[in-house]
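Issue 218. Parser rejects a valid record. Input:
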Amino acid sequence: MNNIIEEENQLLQSIFDIIEIGKTFRFSAGAGSGKTYALIQCLRYLLKTKVVNLSKNKQQIICITYTNVAVNEIKERLGNTELVIVSTIHEMLWDIIQRYQSELVSIHLDKLKKELEKINNELENNPDNKLGVFSSLSSDERDSYISLVKNSKNTYYQKRNSKSDEFKNSYTKYHEEYGAEAVKKWQVNYGKFKEVAKRIYKKERYETAIDKINNQEKGYTQVSYDNIFNADRLDKMKFSHNTLIEYSERMVSDYPILRRIIIDKYPYIFVDEYQDAHSLVIKIMKNLHDYSEENNKKWLVGYFGDSAQTIYDDGVGSEIDTLHPNVEVIYKKYNRRSQKKIIDVANIIRNDRIEQVSIFDDKVNGDVRFYYVNNRNEDACNILITKRFLSEFQSSLGKDSEIDCLVLTNRLMAEMNGFGEVYESFREAENIYYDDLNTKLLSHELEKLEPIIRVIYKLLSSYLSIKDDNTTFYDIFGEKGRFISFHDAHSFVKSLKEINPTSLGELLFSISDYYLSIPHSSCLDIFVNRFLGAKQDEISDYGSIDSLVRGGLRDLMIIRDHDDILNDLQIDKVNQILNISIDIWSKWVRHIKKEQSGKIRYHTYHGTKGEEYQNVAIIMEHSFGDGYHGRNKFKKFFEFRGSDEKTRIEALKDENVRNKIINTQNLVYVACSRAETNLWLIYLDDISDIKHGIESIFSQIEVWDKVD
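Output the parser choked on:
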C-alpha cells in the first residue's frame, strides 16, 4: 500500500514537473481513479508556487468543466480563491469574448446572412416538399402568397395552435383581397402553409436585423448569450450554447490580439472531462497553444479525462489525439473506487493501455454476476422480470441495502421512476429524433434539454419551489430579487401558492392569466424571465405565455408533410402533454435534479456518468430503445467481442462500424464502472448468438430461471 501511494505521489509530481516547464499535457485515467483529485492538486500546486507571479501580473488560472455540478464540486474542494476561475466552458468563453462586441457583431452579421441564404434557398427549392404548393407558383402568385402571410401575421400567431378548420376559417376575412380560391389552394395543407409562413416571418426578421446592424441602430450594436433558453434568437441579437462555441472559435481564430490577451491573462487553463468537450473547444486550445509556441510565451493547457468514457455524440473523445497532437500524455492505472472483481471486468471492457489496479490492499473481493433469461415465456414482462431480479439482489444484500439500477430503455426508467406518461407523450414528437430523446427529455444537464422542454422544467421547478415552505425568496427570484420589496415578494408568492393546478396545462393557464392581468408586476417579470429567458420577448407575438409554450410544443410534435387530419392529431398530442398531472411532472423534475428517493433508484446508462454507487444492477437487452440506430446495439457489440481477431480487425476498417462499437463499449464501461462493491447484470433477450462474446468479458454467466 505504501509503495502504491508513493508511486501515485510520484505520478502527481511528474505532472507538477510538466507544469513547471510550461508544457501542455493530457492526464488520462480510468473510472474511479481520482481525476478530480489530481486536477485539484495541480491547482493547489500552482497556488502554492505561482501565487506571487500571478498576483503581480494580475493573472488567473482557468479551470473549465462540463456541468455546473462539477463546477460546484471543484469549488467546494478547492476552497475560495480569486486566482482560480472555475466555470463551465460556456461561462468561461462568454466571459472572455463578451467585451469584444464590435467583432462579435461582425461575426453575428455573417451568421445572419448565412441563415438568410438558407431560408431563401428553401423557399426557392422546397427541399423534401416541405412547403407544399408554394414552389410551384408563378412569381406573381408567390408575391401574393407572401403578401397574405405578412398581412395576416396576427391571425397566424393567434390561431397557429388551432385545429385545421378553425385555422382556415380565421383566414376567410382575407378571401376578398386575395381571392377565396387562391387562399384555399395555398392552405390545402395548413401544416405546409405554416412551414412557408415560418420561413417568411424569419426571413423578414433576419432582413430587418441585418439592416439595423448595418445602420448601427439602438439595440443592434451588441449581442448577448442566452444561457436560459438554449436556442438562437439571432434577430434579437441573442444566441445559444452551440453558437457561443462557434463564435468563440471564430474569434480566437480570426483575431491574434485576442489569442495574445487570453495567453497573457490566463497562463494556465485546465479542461476537466476533456472527452466531453466539443471539438471546437479543443481547436480553440490548439490555436492558443500554437500561438504561445510561435511567440515564445509560457502558456499551457492541461486536459483531464478519459476517452473510454465518451458517451455523448458531441464529445471529442479519442479525436483529441488528432485535433491536439504532440502533447505530453500521462496515464494513471490506480482505481480508488471499486473492488478488484469489478475493476477486472472494467479493464476487459475498455481493452486499451489503461489497465487499472486498486490502490487499496483490502479491496480484493466484490461480487460480479451476469445472468441471462433462457426460454422466456412470451407473456413475461420485462418490468416484472426486472423487479424480481432486483428483489433477489436486495435479499442477498440485506433488506435495508440500496441499489442503483441502470436500465437501457428510457421508457423503462421513466416508468419505474413514476413519470412514464411524460416519456410516452414525447416519444411521438417527430422533431426529436428517437436517438436524441434520452438527452433532450431526460438529461440531468439543463443545457442539453430541448429548449421548450427546458422551459417547462424551469417553470415546474420554480413553481414546486414556491410550494415548498423551505424555499427562500432568493431561490425564487435570484440576484434580481434585491430590487423587490418584501411585501411585493410575499404577496406574489402567496398568490402563486393559491393556484393549486392539477395539470401542467392548468399551471400554464394560471400563470398566463396572472401575467395578462398584472402586466407590470416586477415579481412576475423576474419569475417569468427565469424560465422563459429571451423567449419572454415573444409573449406579445403569441398573445400569452400559454400560447407561446403550446406553440413550442407543437413545433416538436408537428408532422410537416401530412394532411390536416394528422396535423390536428399533433394538437391533440400537445393537449395530452399539458393534461399530465403536476404530481407526475414533479417526479420527472426530481429525476432531472437527481433527487430520486427509495431503496432502489433507476437511471439510464447515460444518466450515471460521473457517479458511483455501492450496489449496481444493470439491465441489458439487444437494443438501445426502439430507434433505428439503437437496434441490436448491444447484440452487435457482443458479436464483435466474440469474433476472432482477424474478423474484428476487418470490421474496424469501416469507420461507421468502428464508431458504433467504440460508443457501445464506452457505454458498457461507464455503466459497469459505477459499481463500488456489488455488480449484478441481467440480459433479457436470447443470448445464444452472443454467449461467447459475453463470456469473453464476464467469464461466468448464469441462467436466470425465476421468470414465471
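Fixed in the parser; the record now loads. The chain has a mean pLDDT of 89.
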